[in-house]
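Re: beginner question about structure tokens

> Can someone show what the tokenized structure looks like for a real chain? I only ever see the sequence side.

Sure, here's an example I had lying around. Input first:
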Amino acid sequence: MNPDKYIKNYINGSFSPASSGGYLDTINPAFDTPHAKYPDSGEAEIKDAIAFAKKAAPGWRNIDPETRFRLLMRMADIIEQESVVFAQAETRDTGKPYSMSSSADIPRAQACLRFYATAILHNTITSSKAYRKATQFQVNRPMGVVAIGAHWNYPLLNLCEWIAPALAAGNCVVAHPSDRTPSTAHLLSKAAMEAGLPSGVLNIVHGKDSVIEPLMGELDGIDAVGFSGTYERGRDLAARCAENYRPVLLDTGGKNPAIVLEDADADQTVIGLLRSIFTNNGQSAYSTSRLFIARSRYEEIRDELVKRTQFLRIGDPLSKVTDLGPLISREHLERVLSFVSLAELEGGTIICGGKHPNMSEELENGFFIRPTLVEGLSPDARTNQEEIFGPLATITPFDTEEDVIRMSNQNPYQRSAAIWGRDTRVSSRIASELICGQIWVNDWIQSGRDSGHRLYGYAGNGTIGGYATMRFFNREASITQGF
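And the corresponding structure tokens:
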């Protein structure tokens, strides 16, 4: 499998350009240069994809689960076999280090397909009971045709986290990858074709996010929508879906706290914080961008964190020694830098980073920024309230459990939290009071593929992950059989 210079739409089992014939550039953020082109698609292509998906829906819905299992597993096998090609494409599109693409993103994507492929075999009657002179039971049925909008921070994984449960549940899919990261979606199309997925079951349409995303909420023929992206775009899409009584599951951001207790192990904590703040350059909805440290440990943890942050290596994403690559785009880089300036205006002190690094001539036009830590801001400062989605975190001391719980919950994005400390009684008390759906203690980001979690506030509007996402793509029906 080879990447293509000209990416195509995948509709009804074949590849095609946009009807306009237009193409748009995909930019490599490490060099600010185009490396591929994707179709400038619009309403015509989405309507075609919906029509073919509707035509394929009865056959896919009624196909036996074992066949769906084999097809999704075959797609996963192809991704695993072509993992180097997928990882290189992911790195070119996103700028994330190849070491991360190859060891985490691509393996997790194919593992996601395998999980839902296996889950198909257990998607049976949920309950039954005798009722007067009848037996009543519930069954799960697919929605029909579902639309998927994926974000750019984990392009293949995010796409698979929506597509796999939708297909497993028996739906046909019209998917739109982010216009910034189309390459691995195109490779996924090739994997679907090679695996023998029936025509029309999976359709992937490329184009500008601003053009394609609203159509998912407006056009007839779509029965449900799954979307990952910003809160603002998700809110707009939800409003369009509401006008059509169309179910939508949103995954739209995070501004997560990390809490360091008095008895936390210093080395374990700092290593954990470096991961939770700066993995993927902070471009993760699970990144911990608000740090709260017990006052008795504040200077110790802060100083060690600053020292180790300054040793993080920024450079060519393809280099084996690179810790942080560039941000996704020049626009996003300017946005993150604007928050550095805002933090200072709000009374914060930049204690490390916040500037462009000195790069080699080859990389001088890339979208690089030094990882940034800020202290001295109030919990209600804009820098502490708005999602920045970059390598910038604030640090604040706290005195009591009540204080840290209040400050942690004082944010509209209520997705996740991380706590470091030895006393499980204290961490459990705090965890029970945090308003978010996923909490790690002495850890970050690890969770089983089968576990889902609830999103609150601006983070989203439902439960995502595991069996929960597959249930969203099902219609439950209650059948009463008289006797």
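Each token stands for a local structural state, so reading them left to right follows the chain. Residues 165 and 187 are 19 Å apart (CA to CA).
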